[in-house]
């Protein structure tokens, strides 16, 4: 059977949450508004209306690009991208072509499940996904299908829209999902978009094909086609759409047929993709520079000023938490998915440090214990930092222990479990947890599990 490797790239569209639209003064917050009430001559493309760029949108696009390690072009311009579709009132879209705001970036992702199933070999779980370009454009209107009619709502027309294009660096759907989730988190950290996919402010479009692997030669023959799946609004749907497409394309290739170069949609109810329109030939958008908007120039100082506004990004927080607070990667990762969660953790940890000198007991790795409690919601996250610390201290106060009773219980547990004792001595050290459980049960929880563990280890090894 023929062998193939997936070749997957992404186009991601992100609406910016500026107060006004990209080239006019209409409000950019259009969601839920009555159709065609949030428009003006500029975003409707009426004759004589002139666009004026929203510089806040330009700065925020640069900010996204800097967070993605891109090179910012000191010279950039807007272009007219011509195509005719009902949701495009001017017959062209103001976008960027050969001089985008940013190029050549990357984002590292971490996939702990990454492995080669054929060789049963763990691969490098870190992958560097290259960003081709980040550019700024205006969004289109929205088509609404009602019975046999198709209506157009232009409220969205002209909203600032950032397009992020990756290289075809992905070879599996899991990495795509991880990348998109990380990108989504970064954008929310930057506070430039709510990235709400249900409302369409972040839209995902994978480009998918299968490359043939030449037999007995470690060489990939690149495919001569590409399938784009448009406007997906869920990370899980992207993953499912890619997996469906890879299977569909493999079946076609195995039957001697080359998949059509086309645009497809994803039906989440049936879990399939479906053909929308053919792209057998490259579309001629007849780009040319937007004559009504002068080119943009940026100084090193201006770009550095924008860069100074970048917050600590989620992957940087993960690295700091695992290093400074001795957290497990999984806990650090969960705590950094929302800015509010990480702020709460740090606030609680800071309050704890303020009070620890007043305590008559010592807690090992307090940061890790706090993170575990927050992640597993063992204390309500609705408590203030001070209330959390008070509850935390109560949970970790030393238990008053009847020492004589504890020693007798440990001796009895060891005595009635000779088989497990022998297995532990022969290297099955995980059984220590079994012994601790038996002792804690007999003590009705009135003992410190860590102290019990040490006493058990000592007593068993003395036998």
Automatic annotation (TrEMBL):
Broad enzyme group: ligase
Taxonomic lineage from the root: Bacteria, Candidatus Roizmaniibacteriota
Subunit structure: Heterotrimer of A, B and C subunits.
Protein's job: Allows the formation of correctly charged Asn-tRNA(Asn) or Gln-tRNA(Gln) through the transamidation of misacylated Asp-tRNA(Asn) or Glu-tRNA(Gln) in organisms which lack either or both of asparaginyl-tRNA or glutaminyl-tRNA synthetases. The reaction takes place in the presence of glutamine and ATP through an activated phospho-Asp-tRNA(Asn) or phospho-Glu-tRNA(Gln).
SMART domains registered for this protein in UniProt: GatB_Yqey (SM00845)
Pfam families in alphabetical order: GatB_N, GatB_Yqey
InterPro entries per the UniProt record, alphabetical: Asn/Gln-tRNA_amidoTrfase_suB/E (IPR017959), Asn/Gln-tRNA_Trfase_suB/E_cat (IPR006075), Asn/Gln_amidotransferase (IPR018027), Asn/Gln_tRNA_amidoTrase-B-like (IPR003789), GatB (IPR004413), GatB_C_1 (IPR042114), GatB_Yqey_C_2 (IPR023168), Gln-tRNA_amidoTrfase_suB_CS (IPR017958)
Residue ranges of domain Asn/Gln amidotransferase in the record: 343-460
Family: Belongs to the GatB/GatE family. GatB subfamily.
PANTHER family linked: GLUTAMYL-TRNA GLN AMIDOTRANSFERASE SUBUNIT B MITOCHONDRIAL AND PROKARYOTIC PET112-RELATED, GLUTAMYL-TRNA(GLN) AMIDOTRANSFERASE SUBUNIT B, MITOCHONDRIAL
Keyword list, A-Z: ATP-binding, Ligase, Nucleotide-binding, Protein biosynthesis, Transferase
Protein name as annotated: Aspartyl/glutamyl-tRNA(Asn/Gln) amidotransferase subunit B
GO BP, one annotated term: translation
Annotated catalysed reactions: L-aspartyl-tRNA(Asn) + L-glutamine + ATP + H2O = L-asparaginyl-tRNA(Asn) + L-glutamate + ADP + phosphate + 2 H(+); L-glutamyl-tRNA(Gln) + L-glutamine + ATP + H2O = L-glutaminyl-tRNA(Gln) + L-glutamate + ADP + phosphate + H(+)
EC number: 6.3.5.-
UniProt GO MF annotations: asparaginyl-tRNA synthase (glutamine-hydrolyzing) activity; ATP binding; glutaminyl-tRNA synthase (glutamine-hydrolyzing) activity; transferase activity
């Amino acid at each position: 059977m023929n062998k193939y490797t997936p070749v997957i790239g992404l186009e991601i569209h992100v609406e910016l949450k500026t107060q006004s639209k990209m080239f006019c003064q209409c409000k950019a917050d259009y969601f839920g508004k009555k159709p065609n009430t949030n428009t003006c001559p500029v975003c409707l493309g009426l004759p004589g209306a002139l666009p004026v760029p929203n510089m806040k949108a330009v700065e925020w696009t640069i900010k996204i690009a800097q967070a993605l390690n891109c090179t910012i072009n000191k010279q950039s311009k807007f272009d007219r991208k011509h195509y005719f579709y009902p949701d495009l009132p001017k017959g062209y879209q103001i976008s960027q072509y050969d001089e985008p705001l940013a190029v050549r970036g990357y984002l590292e992702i971490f996939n702990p499940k990454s492995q080669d199933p054929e060789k049963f070999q763990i691969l490098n779980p870190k992958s560097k996904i290259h960003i081709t370009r980040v550019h700024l454009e205006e969004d289109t209107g929205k088509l609404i299908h009602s019975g046999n009619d198709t209506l157009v709502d232009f409220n969205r027309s002209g909203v600032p829209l950032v397009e992020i294009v990756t290289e075809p660096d992905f070879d599996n759907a899991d990495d795509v999902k991880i990348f998109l989730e990380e990108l989504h988190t970064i954008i929310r950290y930057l506070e430039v978009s709510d990235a709400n996919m249900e409302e369409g402010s972040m839209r995902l479009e994978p480009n998918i094909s299968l490359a043939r692997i030449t037999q007995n030669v470690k060489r990939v023959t690149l495919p001569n086609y590409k399938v784009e799946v448009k406007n997906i609004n869920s990370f899980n749907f992207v993953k499912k759409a890619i997996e469906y497409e890879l299977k569909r394309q493999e079946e076609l290739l195995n039957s001697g047929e080359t998949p059509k170069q086309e645009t497809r949609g994803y039906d989440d109810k049936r879990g399939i993709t479906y053909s929308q329109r053919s792209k057998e030939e490259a579309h001629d958008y007849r780009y040319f520079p937007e004559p009504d908007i002068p080119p943009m120039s940026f100084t090193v100082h201006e770009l550095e000023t924008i860069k100074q506004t970048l917050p600590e990004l989620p992957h940087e927080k993960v690295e700091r938490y695992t290093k400074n607070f001795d957290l497990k990667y999984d806990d650090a990762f969960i705590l950094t998915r929302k800015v509010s969660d990480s702020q709460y953790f740090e606030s609680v940890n800071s309050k704890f440090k303020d009070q620890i000198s007043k305590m008559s007991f010592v807690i090992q790795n307090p940061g890790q214990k706090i993170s575990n409690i927050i992640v597993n919601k063992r204390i309500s996250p609705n408590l203030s930092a001070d209330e959390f610390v008070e509850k935390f201290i109560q949970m970790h106060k030393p238990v008053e222990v009847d020492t004589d009773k504890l020693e007798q219980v440990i001796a009895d547990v060891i005595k009635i479990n000779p088989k497990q004792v022998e297995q532990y001595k022969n290297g099955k050290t995980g059984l220590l947890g079994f012994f601790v459980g038996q002792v804690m049960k007999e003590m009705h929880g009135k003992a410190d599990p860590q102290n019990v563990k040490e006493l058990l280890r000592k007593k068993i090894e003395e036998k």
